[in-house]
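Running log. JK asked me to keep both predictions on one page so they can be read side by side. First protein, sequence followed by its tokens:
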Amino acid sequence: METIRPIAIFILFHLFLANVSLATETSKVRWQVVPDSNYTIDQIVQQDYFSFQHFDTIYPNRHSQYWVRVSIHHPEGDNFYLSASPNINNKWYFQVSDGRWKKISTGLLVPSDTRDHRVKAEGIISDSLICYIHMDVRKMDNITSFLPTIKVINETIRDSKEKYILLFSTISAIILLIYIVNFLIDYYMLKESTHVYYLMVLIGGLMYVVSYHSVIDLIINLRFVKVIDASLTQIYSADISYIINRLSIMIIFFGIIQLSNTFLDLKNALPLWNKILDYYAYFFVGINGLSLTITLLTSFPVDMYLISISNIMLILAMILVLIGGIFCLKKDKNNAILFLTGHLVPFLLIIVTSVIVEIYAFEKTIAYTIIPYLSVLSLPMSLSIVLAIRVRNVKNALTKNLLYTQQLGIENERMRYDKEIENLENENIKNQLELEKMHRENLELKIDLQNRQLLTSAMQNQKKDTIIHHISQEVSKISKNEEASSTAPLKAIRLLMLNLKTAEANWHSFKEHFEKIHPDFFEKLKREYPELTPNEVRLSAYLQLNLTNKEIAVLQNIEPSSVKRAKIRLKQKLNKSENS
């Protein structure tokens, strides 16, 4: 992009020199007009057959075609070009050296390889020239009357001007195309909405460049013209260049407004100002689009009357945008300063262009020729600078975000590792709990097994004691017989029974095995409940083994109901002891 700016400056300098060389023509031009009635050039030329009436006003609503006899006195003696207005569909006739009349067609409806639709004068004798024009004014039937105008321009001046205008327009278009491609690439890479409006402004600028001096006529061979107004000295018409030029102004205007809103983020920074600019942009485009449509579809020249209003609206819009940028200095200082410094020059040039076009309309002055191009070319140049700075800021922000993201990623990775370690620790704790649970279950199973073994042993001892008790009763019955009681066998049986009466010993054996399974049970029970009787202590041990009433009754050789009552008394005593 840096190489484009010197080229643009070079072109501007040469265009300035070209326009400075323009001189005021000293040629004297006279003309006479006559309505056409299918005359040939030979009939028009023959003075004895036909003579021109001396009036110079054309009435399109009376006749659709006219003949114009042109007499030119050109004392400079150089070659020159001619143009006639209206220049819609004219046929020029020049008498060449062999006496024949050469016809040259020109006009907005005639295909041409020239931009300005001028014709080079031929058949100049000394410093005078007489030629004829056949004017077709059928496109002007909505105009009551007007004066035709004939203009003469020196060949050297005209060719020099055309050369520089075409060169400048071409280079400007190429510059804008390069910028458009560059912005498209940037938009593809950055996906920033601001670039959309940059592109809109650039496309509008390209349309303006190729239409401002009707260069588009050399590119598009589409002939269209509509005469929308006329005065005694000037004809106003709308052709392809005019339409594209008007559309380009709407596109540039809308793009600048939306670009400003997006760049400054006015929707969040200044919501009210954002709405004002939005409505203003839509109103400008709507009113200009509607007026252009009405002008092209009807005979009422609305668009021509609104040009001045449009220029004023354009100036006001640039002022509003700059004011919005100033207001944003309080919200986002860096962004607002970047916007104002980057867009101030093109916005001021747009204001100057609107003023110049309004003041010097239809006057081909240096300012009228140069300033509009300057304003259009200043847009991409300033935009590229602003965008470069903005892209750099975005890249810096992206770099910071990338570093932050990387740090965040590292932090997340560390947190993930910590989480995995925590999960492993939780899994380890869970496994330990499972092991403890299994150990506890195994211990409970072991204790339960020991309890069952202890219960079985106690039941066997109780059964043995019961049998001994029954034998003792039978022996007692026999002992009542004194003779039998003194026999040696009976004494031996009594001695054996005495040895077998081990109920108390069985209890001590049971207690010893019980304490192995439930250590400190009896000691703790006596310490907390010292008022318990031996039978209640024994009952507590049986309850600790989760024995049923029936099993306890068998062990104590009592009825189950007695066990139930004993349990109630034990519970009452324990509760009473706890409450005290």
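And the second, directly underneath as requested:
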Amino acid sequence: MPFRWRGYWDFGTGALGDMGCHFMDVPFRALKLGYPTSVECSVGSVYADFFKEAFFDDVCPPSTSIHLKFPSKTGQGKEISFSWYDGGIRPQLPEGCDYQRVFGSKDGGMLFIGTKGILSAEMFGENPVLWPEAKFQHVRVPGAKRALVPGNHQGHQQQFIQACKKGYGSYTSSAFDEAGPLTEIVLMGNLAVRSFLYRESKADGKGFNFPGRQKLLWDGANMKITNFDTSNQFVKRDYRTGW
């Protein structure tokens, strides 16, 4: 089934590649993110027996937590920290949130944690809430700054088809000049996952070393990892010959 293709590295990019664009699009646009400077992750393990970890190189892991760093937008102050969780892993709720409330939806959610407050939302940025609510109860939510896609979630398909028919310069709410860089950020997370899973046999043949389990430094302009060259094999690959 097409949905299950996402779990095989030869055909898909896992839960992150499937759902990342639906969640990461909002902070990507709102914060005007560029290339990340670093990424690190941890990955859920699979065990074949007691204390015997199993490795399935063809498929994506059951869960991941991925942490990216982006440069400060002002050139001063702290970097922007960006975290992704899947496979049932959820972030710790920050101070100021109502712990009795359900955050996100069955599909997931997002949190913007700032210096003056917190913004929570569901997938696509729907149903945003400012926290603490008492502090922001008088804040009005501004209207959309760009035209919304008619037809709700399915409307973007028709929008894309109409743009193809009309030709270059046609309006789409997710143009390639935005979708391309966003996709690179999403796949940067998977670059960390592939590096995390990379293993080398120990000299004595007993077990493995995992040299890719470290913070990876990214040179976005040149599309390469600068501190662990082995990771660069996952940046691109030779595509199989067609039929």
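Observation for JK regarding the second prediction: Helices lie at 2-5, 14-30, 133-136, 152-166, 176-197.
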